[in-house]
Design a protein that fits this description.
two-stranded antiparallel sheet; 12 helices; 43% helix; single chain; 286 residues; globular; Rossmann fold
Length: 286
């Protein structure tokens, strides 16, 4: 077996875009060796030192973002009003934005761990890149319910709205199916906790940038995402950013990666702020 190493260009792509979403242990949890650092680093064409360096880079980015947020007076005020108990298990069910190793959920974890060091929180990042609501529903038991969470944060819907390049006349998941999937997820959450779900709406994309990415063969229109947001805002629980405007209105490119779809770390910071504001001040829909 050859030991194929990533080229310089491939390593740059990993660092600037790909690596933060390659959490293969969540996508393929039953593969032998999936928890072996040497196996995974070799699969990516990296040696173990390079692999761990990248892991640490994104973790540090998330921690730095959390520390910057803690300089915000509003964030400090919201901390005392969050509804969590010190031994709560908090699960985030989502797609790429949640799966991101420097994403909103990682930043949020750092904030709670830094400010409540005596707490015994359990955090479970159940985000998997490119998941639709159907994908997330399929793994609901394995990735969410088995942990018996006290709180479930749900950030889904973006990839339901895909319009494939060869079939632009329909979304990948019909809106009626999105509604049914989210309702079933909501019902499942109610079987393990009395706490209401926390719903984070999908944000718009920057038009045109998806088409420039070789990885993607679809487009997403904000008119479709707007309908998904309407479905979410009709749900019980906390509704975070009902209009999807936390990246600006219109959305600003600064808050996105080069694909115009996934948030940059600055965009993730906006999501964390809106999440905390909603948890601290919003009325819960019942």
């Amino acid at each position: 077996m050859t030991n194929q190493k990533a080229t310089k260009k491939e390593k740059e792509a990993l660092e600037k875009y790909l690596f933060q979403f390659l959490n293969l242990e969540k996508t393929y949890p039953l593969l032998p060796g999936i928890r072996n650092t040497g196996s995974i680093s070799g699969l990516l064409g990296l040696d173990i030192t390079e692999y761990e360096k990248l892991k640490n880079l994104f973790s540090e980015n998330a921690k730095k973002a959390a520390l910057e947020l803690l300089k915000d007076d509003d964030v400090i005020d919201w901390l005392d009003q969050l509804p969590f108990s010190n031994d709560d298990t908090i699960v985030a069910l989502g797609d790429s934005a949640t799966d991101d190793q420097q994403g909103w959920f990682e930043i949020f974890q750092h904030i709670l761990n830094i400010t409540v060091p005596e707490a015994q929180f359990t955090f479970v990042n159940a985000g998997i890149s490119n998941n639709t609501t159907a994908d997330a529903l399929r793994r609901m038991n394995r990735d969410v319910l088995v942990h018996e969470p006290d709180w479930v944060i749900i950030s889904l819907g973006t990839f339901d709205a895909q319009r494939l390049n060869f079939a632009p006349g329909r979304t990948l998941v019909a809106l009626s199916e999105t509604w049914e999937n989210l309702s079933t997820i909501e019902d499942a959450v109610a079987t393990v906790t009395e706490n209401p779900p926390i719903w984070i709406t999908p944000v718009p994309i920057i038009p045109g940038l998806l088409g420039e990415m070789e990885l993607f063969e679809f487009d997403i229109h904000d008119a479709d995402l707007s309908q998904v947001r309407e479905v979410i805002t009709g749900k019980k629980g906390f509704i975070v950013d009902p209009l999807g405007r936390r990246m600006g209105n219109p959305p600003e490119a600064w808050y996105y990666l080069s694909d115009g779809l996934n948030p940059s770390i600055s965009g993730h910071v906006n999501t964390v702020k809106e999440l905390m504001r909603s948890l601290a001040t919003a009325k819960v829909k019942k």
